[in-house]
Please model this.
Amino acid sequence: MKTQSQFTVVIVAFLMLLGAQLNAQQKVAPLTPEEQQTVVDSLSSKLTANYVFPEVAIKMSSSMKSKLENGNYKAIIDPQEFAVTLTEDLQAISKDKHLRVTFAPGRIAAQRQAVTPEDSIAYLNRRVNNMKRNNFGFKEVKIMAGNIGYLDLRSFSNVAFAGGTAVSVMNFLSNTDAIIIDLRNNGGGSPAMIQLITSYLFESDPVHLNNFYTRPSDQNSQTWTLPHVSGTRSPHTPVYVLTSGSTFSAAEEFSYNLKHLERATLVGETTGGGAHPGGSVVATDRFMVWLPTGRAINPITNTNWEGTGVSPHIQTPAADALDVAYKNALELLTKNNTDESLQAFYEWPLAQLNLKTNPVSLDTKTLKAFAGIYGPRKVIFEKGKLCYQRGGGTKYELIPYSSNEFMLKGLDSFRIRFLADGNKVTALQGLYENGRTDKNVKGKE
Model:
């Protein structure tokens, strides 16, 4: 059954692609009153039979029929405009952002044509290669200063193709001290990928993630974390999830699950608000509808994020979410560690983050007081700025981040602290990101 289902999906996807090409080549015939009637009747029938909330489906059906009878659609002859108008009317009642009508004659015609298994295999290969070029949605993974893992995830791709990449990414992040998962540009995807990634964030004992009700079959299903994953889990690593108004569908489920399981801190904006799964259904020869046929029912809240979105713990503009989460993670790690070397390790990138929002400015007199010779090191005041140079090496501009501490522009692994006796600068202390320090006295070659 599973193999047959996947084969069917491949055929439909191939037909969608072929249909889009055919549609672009065909001249669009104007809409007639008779076609409007057919579209409305078909949509009404499919909504009342399958839409997740029967009572809402009846309201939508009655509204469309009433507007058609009252002539609200009479002036519309552009099929695309009609699809947009119907979508707006349906969403105005349902508030369901997944529910939408599309004008797709080429796609529908292609779906009604027979295709060979060879066509399907060729399309599947093209589709997989295209997903590979986008790394299955795993846009970027890296370890930032302070041993903070970062994952920019643009989609929850099909585990059958993307599972190996997901496993590699989660194992890559397993040695980090905190993990930031960026879903600000993620529009959704596969619940199975949600299950896989989430499983790495918990112990092996299964955790109940979500419930789903599907109206056409009148059945309920559940999703749980997996009892076995390849590689290393990170059940105790602090997790931050970045969200925006563009975070939608499966990306919202991932955020909502972790929020209510108290497993992650959400940072950013309230998400889009789409919690009803479904699929595309042919309505007529030229119109389709993406029809939500089920709903998510979280086992903790007994509801979902439909229409409301998922609200973050820390509300901030999406553009600032990464810096805010990064800073929060470093502050948490600094607070929870008593080891001085570890604290210095986390405070190193924290100082640079603080500088973004709280720049330090020192007057000319103070800057000039730091200039001088410190053993093999020279601090020079020129053109209103301090510069640092060791021997005949590269000259770096010094940027203050406190009254006596400076970063070197272009060199992240080394900083300077000036030491003083009263009002007199006496020495230069070199600071290294691993916590090591050294010192040179001022005025001595």
About this structure: The chain is about 40% helix and 25% strand.
